[in-house]
Amino acid sequence: MLRQLVTKNVAISYPIVRTRLPLSAVALTRLRQGPPRYRQFSTDIEQIKHQADSNEGDSSASTTGVIDVEKQREIVVYYDHIYPISSSNSTFRQTLTLYANIQNQSIEQLTEKVLKLSSPLPSNVNITEFVPLKRDCGAFVKFSVPSDLRTKELFRIIHDNVKIKKQQYDSNIFRYIFNKVWNHFPTVYAVKGTPWIEDLRRFPTTKLKISFEGNSLTEEELYVLFRRYGLIVDIIPGSDSATIIFKHLRSAIAAKNCITGINLNHDKTILHIQYIPIKRVNYITDFIINHQKIAIPILLALLATVAVLIFDPIRQWFIESKITKKYSLDTYKNYPMVKFFYIPYKTIKGWITNSYDYLDEAIVSKFNEHDSINNELDDNTSSGNQNINLFWTERYEKSKQLKLWIYENINTFIIVKGPKGSGKEEFVYDHTLFEDDKLKNKILSIDCDLLSKSRSDNALLNNTSSQLGYFPVFTWTNSLSQFIDLGVQGLTGQKSGLSESKETQIKNMFSLTSQAIRSIATQDYEKYYNSIIKKNSKLPEGEKLELLKEDEYLQQHPECKPIIVINKFSRKADQSSNDFIFPLIADWSAGLIQNNLAHVIYVTADVGSVQHLNNVLPNQVFKVISLSDASSISAKQYLMDQLKLQNSKSIEGIFEPLGGRMLDLQAFIRRIKSGEEPPEALNEMITQAAEQITTFFLNNQKLQEDNNWNPAQVWVLMKLLSKSNEITYQELSKSNLFKSSSETIGTLSTLEKHDLITLKRDKGVLSSISTGRPLFKAAFKHLIGDLNVFKIYEIDYLQQLIKLEMTSITKLENELTNIYSAHSKLDGRISYLTKKIETSNSKIIDYESKINDIKKLNDASKHSSRGLFGIF
């Protein structure tokens, strides 16, 4: 008797499957020999089914999960590959295939498909029940058997018809090849056992577990039983169970569904078959787990390589776009269609930008002006243009010189230096590069001040990427990589190298920028190369044009090379952890010059920063442009224009201490517009400058890291520079505090770095000294004229001189002692040393006398600055 457990035909939610209940041999014998109504059932599952159905009205297969078969009148066969079968062993993919089969096929369509495959059938043969087996991509079909036909004969008819249909299908060469590859044509098998059709997530595999209930079977018996379903790779016999491995998945499915539950050896053996999940070994995962010290670094290296291959071309494209401004709105602002959107955009942007300048807004509201101080420089009126031209006329020749050096294209490593507020940026950008149509299209600006002030590693990386156009940048990976590196180090005992320092990351950014610059510089050469090759192909052999090499072409076409402007270059960063930035930028720019890829312009107010450039290019002669303050005529005219004065009477004699320093002029203008009177504004600015000098240079409170001067030396310089605009080095060397030439030059260079003084050289030799800012001269006079300040630092200065003389006397006395102890008759030397001691002693007496005189001074004396000058 054939029995069948089935699932519902269409529903996805399946009924509970009733499994076989294990019974002892004695119980099994008693049941089979019991009452007559149970003797017809040969297995436990049939008994349980009929017991459960005794009080039920619905005993169909969709409800019970079992197909009732009447002996000699019905036959159950199994058709495989009714649904498209999944060739994957992935549970996820097989689940998707299962639900796809449920939705795409209906019972009526499948029944018609089976009839078509099995035809022609005898007239009295019909399909009485169709049970789809969706997970295994097949179906159980129950046929009615006529009384004049045996069951075996009906199955043979069905089998032969399916075989003929397959031969007809393979008659077409294309379908034959397709079927050979995919093996998708259905096959029919006779159901020999009582299969357990469960709906568990046990997906088909090529390995079957054969469990024996009763006596076990030998390897040969298993082969005979299962070989008809396909090639067997291996059989692993056992006492309680065996394992059979088929070559094809389709064979395992057919064997499992047709043989499971079969009774053999006169009910002494019952077979139960299940799929054995194939546990595939992932060799990559196994290698990583078992060889961590080798696998993890290799894996990280591969990931880094893939990341570079994907993101570096994208980043290079963004860098090139930033340099060439190919996709910038400003590049196309003169096009008529773009103007329609560009003008409103710039207007709204101007409103938003101006709203942040609260100082200018306050000035505007106070004086009902519509333009801030900075925007007044961009005034389009005729008088405004004349004033601006007047202000920049003095630098016109220097601007021409800068352009000439670029077009000469000979080691274009240019340094534009000048004090703060001297308009270096405007000089380079507005009045040199942007004025030339050939030069303004390939400019990369790097603001070093923004990089040096970054307070964290992520901020530094973001600022650097913003300056270079390096995008995308993933700063969040720094924290993640540190945790990964720590974990790998704990597992393997060594760092993975995934966590890179910020120095390495920024160096990589600049390295990729070099590649982008090379790509831009050689774009025109590629066009030139192709055009020459094309022309030479049309010319005779003797008339072919000479093809220049890449370096030669770039040497003759300086406009092809980008211009790198490094602004606010300094010797040290505001954050000590960022000090590596300036040497790195200097080394990177030196590589661009040596490879003839770009023009480099350094804009700096720190003369000490040139040392970085000397280190990377020791044999290079730099081209230097020094920007000084504006002349008194230009400064006066600028003040009149900004304050809208018709004549200069109100500021006559007041603006001279300011000189031509733009920052001081603008600060003076802001004070006047905020309501201060010109004398009051000037006095406040002089007081602030005096406080700055006292704090930084006389008290040594801020510049402890590199100061190699003492307050007495600064005091001497202040007294000398307060009398004249400029002093010579020979004049300064007369002071005892500046006797040593090497130490003096080092001290003066340090003071120049901090903008207290300015050194002027003639043919590389120090010639003269002036104040760092014009306002400092007035500040010097202000400090010297203050009695309290004068008494403190003048006494300190005289005491330093006394120390020098005392040191000199000690040396002379030691020499005299040595002469007398040796009983040497050196009367001339003794006379010389004695006179030197008397001279030094006389100086000490004079210095002490001056100290006493200074201490007697008090506020009642009301000494003017001229009176105090007379003391020394």
Percent of residues in helices = 40-55%
Q: How many helices? A: 36
Spatially, the strands of the biggest sheet line up as 6-7-5-9-8
User: Which regions are unreliable across 5 or more consecutive residues at pLDDT < 50?
Assistant: 1-42, 356-388, 860-867
What's the Cα radius of gyration?
50 Å
Question: How do the helices and strands line up, and which of them pair or pack?
Answer:
Blueprint (H helix, E strand, L loop, with lengths): L24 H8 L3 H4 L4 H10 L7 H4 L9 E7 L10 H14 L2 H12 L8 E7 L4 E7 L6 H20 L2 H10 L4 E4 L16 E8 L4 H8 L5 E5 L4 E6 L2 H11 L3 E2 L4 E7 L7 H8 L1 H33 L11 H20 L2 H10 L5 H4 L5 H11 L3 H13 L4 E5 L6 H10 L9 E5 H5 L4 H12 L7 H17 L9 H20 L1 H16 L11 H7 L6 E5 L13 H14 L4 E6 L5 H7 L6 E4 L5 H12 L18 H12 L4 H21 L12 H13 L2 E3 H5 L7 H13 L3 E6 L2 E7 L2 H12 L1 H35 L5 H30 L8 H7 L1
Description:
This protein has 872 residues and is an alpha+beta fold. Among the domains are: 204-278, Alpha-Beta Plaits (2-Layer Sandwich); 320-327 and 377-626, no CATH class; 671-861, no CATH class. Helices cover 54% and strands 11% of the residues. The strands form four sheets. It has a five-stranded antiparallel beta sheet with strand order 6-7-5-9-8, covered by helices on one side. A five-stranded parallel beta sheet has the order 11-12-13-10-14, with helices on both faces. Strands 2-3-1-4 form a four-stranded antiparallel beta sheet, with helices on both faces. Strand 6 (232-236) and strand 7 form a beta hairpin. Helix 16 packs antiparallel against helix 27 (632-643) and helix 22 (502-521) packs parallel to helix 25. Mean pLDDT is 80; it is low at 1-42, 356-388 and 860-867.
